[in-house]
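Researcher: Going back to the complex we discussed earlier. I've cleaned up the inputs and rechecked each line, so this should be the final set. Can you rerun the prediction on the complete assembly and write out the structure?
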Amino acid sequence: MTSTDVLDVRAKALREKRRRRIASIIYIALGITLFFVAWVLLSLEASPWHYDIPPPFGAVGPFQDILQGVWGLFQGEGAIAHFWRNLGTSQDMKIKFVHACPDLHPANVNNPFRQIISSLMGWKYNADNLLPGQPSPVPIGQLPDYCYGYGIHLLVTIIRILIGAALGTIAGLAIGLSSLVFPKVAQVFTPVASFFGTAPIFIAAPFFVIWFGVEVPIMTTIGLVTFYTTLLMYFFSRRAAENIPVGIVESALTLGGTPRSIFRWVYLPGTVPEIAGGFRIALAGAWGLGVLVEVLGIQVGGGHLIDIWRFLIGQLQAPSALVALITFYGVLAVVVDGILLVLIRYLTRWSEAGRRLGL
Amino acid sequence: MSHTRLFRILFWVGWILWIFVSGLAVLAISPLGDWQFEEGVLHLTWQFIFLWAVLFWAYTFIFRFRASVAAAKRIGRGIVRLPERMVKAAKANPLFFITWAVLLVGWQIMSYVAPKGTLEHPLVPGFDYIIYNALYRLSGNWDLFGGFSLPGLTLQFGELAPFPAIEGAESRTWTAVFLALGFHSFMTLSRLVAGLGVGLIAGLATGLALPYWSALRQISWAPFNFLRMIPLLAAIPWMQFALGVDLRATTLFIGFGVWVMLVVATMNAVANVPDRYIESSRTLGASRLRTYFKVIVPGAMPELRTALLLAGGLGWSLTIAAEFLGFPTGLGFMAAAAVQETNTARLVIVAIVVAFYSLLTFYLLNQLFNRMVSWMPQRTSGTTDISKVAGAAGAAGRAGDQLHE
Amino acid sequence: MSRVVSFEGLWCVFEHRSGQLVNALHDVNFEVQPGEFVCVVGRSGHGKTTLLRVLAGLQPPTAGQIRLGEVVVEGPGADRAMVFQQDTVFPWLHVRENVEFGLRALKVDDEERESTTAHWLDAVGLTDFADSWPRELSGGMRKRVALAAAMAVGSDVILMDEPFGSLDYFTRRNLHDVLLDLWEETQKTVFFVTHDIEEALILADRVILLAEGKLVDDIPVDLPRPRDEDVRASSAAVDITKTILAHLGITEEEATQV
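Model: Rerun complete. Updated structure for the full complex:
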């Protein structure tokens, strides 16, 4: 029989807890380190993918000579360095006359904000639609530097995809939630949605390219992302409503709930956790979809960057560029997902399921 | 019980072997047939294929006669009752058919109204155009005149239908249309099956193995969650640059995508197995390993249904998109070729074929899954249509009124 | 075979969600003789379940130890099978396989396993349902399966954590009879956690009272068995009830008001 001091026991419990927390942080840090180690190993000279995978970091800084030796024959630069160098202005794009400025009006050409709006709205001001007496457009060679950077291309694509996802979410939720009130909507929409929803969405991309690619290129990205998000959010809102326990609805009925009040106070808040989780899934898919449809033949945007490098593949820099861009989209997706996660945690702080979905 | 299981496995393995053995058997009786087999080159004919198919199905009738007859009867009954069931379904859910009818008729009307465009093919093709022009012209995709090389055997297909690409537009045939669709479907499906198979097996294995060691689970958390978020569709150009354009490349790529997705999903499913099952198993004296395989793994299965279906969808997306961006064969290639000539009609055909196949994939994955978790309780989900609630509310209200009277 | 279970200076400290530390067990010391039927009674959240989980080895104590004879408890094992409050019958195994689960883990040979399983299935009256899925059984029948599974592994101590809490009154009474029959037949030591005083009176040889993690009383229940309504209405039984209620902070008046 041992009688132990209360404080001693508590201190032991606290120590144990702290030890576990520190261990978990160390493990996660170790995971991130191992990820980079694997990346570096794949990029080494001995690796079969030496020419296809650039090292994550270029040979820069005080260890330049050592790293140069380690990276071996790889003539390109590190993925991160490549991205950083080309973010503002890209010499390669200048050589190929690839720019992202659709509006060549002399008054607007130095205004990045105006350029983004123009590329989103499809505004053009160039030699083709020049009226007599108007100032002549800025020659391609004299465009400001930012027109040739990755930055403006990527920004335009991000905005397009977010607009598409927002439109699709509104449409999908409108249809999905209204189908709770008017079941006829569900009867009409479900067969169509499940037909289009099962087919790989990419098969719809060529239609958007043919129909909009020439006249209104932004509709290609926005249209496809909207279409995809609408379908997904429709399914998620239906499923979220199905997962609301019957008991809760019946209890609301016995408390004197009308269809309208039940919709407002039971279905609407009750479906938030799953709908929010669904939106995360939809957005995660939308990045790839939005980028790839631009590869198919849109002249401005993040996908177009990949297309440029696809045809410059003979050059040693192509893997740097492609891997850098893919990594950027990955990091972008993770960052946006993280922001959504925080938002969802806040919105669904009452819900156990919501917390789990938010995880 | 184990005897029947052994027999079943032997039956299926035997049938797969029989695919090849029966082919050889038909070759062995070549003097009787109209096909030529010389110096490792086989000129396929319809007679050859027919004999092969007969032999192939004969296997089931020999080894599982009763089941085969029952299956044949069931299929026959299904076909006979199809019209009756269609009518019944139409009566039960008329809006389904009305919706589709409106969509299809609307498309046809759109084809008359929509701008023709300046291109060779209409932007919105009517069904007449799709069937008689675009579908018929698909025979141009019947272009296997190089033959198909297997180790030790080259197949030549010239006897099956003429190649319009060589012999000109007059030699187009409906046979060639279906052969073209069949060939390109075969290429796509083989890429998909290889990639999906590798991905499913590797993903389930990794996802089930990692959480067994809590340290490994925590270490792999960050890398896998980052890899999962990379938009793989955007990585296809790089994939073709790094891996090339062949079956190995697609298998690695699709397999990688499915693998990453399934690892994360499986690890989540394992984490969500209720603790009480694990504790119960441990207090009954089961070791950690035994608990893992007998309790955690089966307990994680129900949650994998969605992940499995998503994996199927991802596989299809990656296959079609990869073919679209540079493969010389497959349904994705047909779509890409259609975009080259801005032929929307051909796109419609490819889209319908792909949709059909992916529906089939989902159906099969669902069947596979249901077999895996036949123990699962029936899902007791509630009525969700607020109409029913509204109906109940109305009924409750009326009942109340009557009471007051 | 049977061994004395001794709790020696047992402490268990938890962290509450708010970051506060809570003493779930506060220096618990007592001994249980082989074959005793012990009911652990207390309000919810006062350490009953923690005590059982530490005994089962599912939860390490912060300080102190539990010994079975000379062996210190470290981790779960088949010598202390547990029946849980929730439904823990594995839904992916048939009823028979559920009962066999522990025996398979012990690598008992086939013949013995089959005979043992058949015996326990018969003892809980589920022979006819041996090949059913658990989803096809009622809640009470699933509890019988859990009971049979715990009995079948042959442990000398059986732990029960409010096992019949979710069942209706009649099913519960029925299962009490089944449990007492099995206990009398096997003479296993049983730890039975409950908050139901009537249940404790029906079952227990001895009631351990926990309040705020401390052992506040250890009441022997010397009533004749079977404990039918008359026995439970006897003055000895009423005295025990009163003692328990007083310890739980409920006076007799309050109790009757409820």
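Model: Worth noting: Strands of chain C lie at 5-15, 21-32, 37-42, 63-68, 71-72, 80-83, 157-161, 189-194, 206-211, 214-220.
Researcher: Good, that matches what I expected from the previous run.
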